[in-house]
Amino acid sequence: MARLPERIVCLSTETVEALYLLGAEDRIVGISGFTTHPPRARKEKPKVSGFSSAKVERILAVEPDLVLAFSDLQGDIARDLIKAGVAVYVFNHRSVEGILAMVETLGRLVGREAAALDLVADLERTIATARAEGEARAARLGRRPRVYFEEWNEPLITGIRWVSELIGIAGGEDCFGELSIHHSAKERILADPAVVIPRAPDIIIGSWCGKHFQPTHVTSRPGWDTIPAVRDERVFEIKSATLLAPGVAAIREGLPAIGRCLDSLL
After folding, report:
1. Tens digits of residue pLDDT in 119-139
2. Model pLDDT, residue 1
3. Structural contact between residues 44 and 26, judged by C-beta atoms closer than 8 angstroms
4. How are the residues of the chain apportioned to helix, strand and coil, as percentages rounded to the nearest 5?
5. Whether 243 contacts 251, CB under 8 Å
6. How many alpha carbons lie under 13 Å from residue 171 in its C-beta half-sphere?
7. Is omega for the bond preceding 246 within 30 degrees of 0, making it cis?
8. Which site among 28, 76, 92, 133 is 20 to 30 Å from 171 CA-CA?
């Protein structure tokens, strides 16, 4: 008798990505409309939910035996599915180590543990290489460059923990690293844009969640013309789909992208 889940709904993109990489994409019977990785999933799999909202009957219609969710943001959906008798596993990671743990746990859930361990080992090698390159960057510069990461602009929201950690791995220093430990975006709000000015970031990276970054909106803020990153035209965008989901793409694509931003100082 098969005891592993055969019909899985993924409510966030990182579990879709991981299942494809683990060779278990045939188990996916539904995804979120906000899925970005891998791109082909949007063509191959039915979209049955949003991210923080969903019509439970659409999810139930594909008859899942497991739903994969993420954080309290999907808590209401998870509650309603549990009430409907569906098994739900909710990931709640916010760190680079948490991403690796998510991959390992997912591998065990679907019977692809060996593939998951191989994927994690590959990601660990990527991180180790990037860390060495980051230390070399810092050595050439004689310091760790300061990075202001902006997740949202109205109000200003700074980076979450895994983004802050990736900046550190790449050889930079997150200007608001002390805020990155907070799970809620509300706790990472900068009430006054002027507080960025004395932090004097060398690099500004914008990754506005779900919309295009507008550098001129940043550089035209009152007093920001004195910030080194603005003065020296080192204001960059990294697509939110690359960095703002706690999954494999953040490490494989986001980490090198941060490194390239920092290379502009060399």
Report:
1. 999 999 999 999 999 999 999
2. 43
3. no
4. 50, 15, 35
5. no
6. 29
7. no
8. 92
> In the predicted model, what is the mean pLDDT of the chain?
96
- Within the chain, what is the greatest distance between any pair of CA atoms? 67
Rounded Cα distance, 160 and 54, in Å: 25
CA distance 179 to 183: 9
Give 210-247 pLDDT, tens digit per residue: 899 999 999 999 999 999 999 999 999 999 999 999 99
**At a CB cut-off of 8 Å and minimum separation 6, what does 246 contact?**
14, 70, 93, 94, 98, 99, 102, 162
State CA 173 to chain mean position distance. 18
Residue 156, both tokens: 């200003």
How many contiguous H segments (helices) and E segments (strands) does the chain have? 12, 11
State residue 173's pLDDT score: 98
Report residue 6 as tokens: 């055969």
Sign of CA dihedral 136, 204, 195, 211: negative
Distance CA 7, CA 109 (A): 12
Q: Determine the pLDDT at residue 244.
A: 96
Could you count the other beta carbons within 10 Å of the beta carbon of residue 15? Answer: 28
The per-residue pLDDT for range 159-204, each reduced to its tens digit, is 999 999 999 999 999 999 999 999 999 999 999 999 999 999 999 9
Q: If DSSP codes are grouped into helix, strand and coil, which group holds residue 2?
A: coil
- Per-residue pLDDT reduced to its tens digit, 181-191: 999 999 999 99
From CA 151, how far away is CA 206, in angstroms rounded? 6
Q: Give pLDDT, residue 3.
A: 85
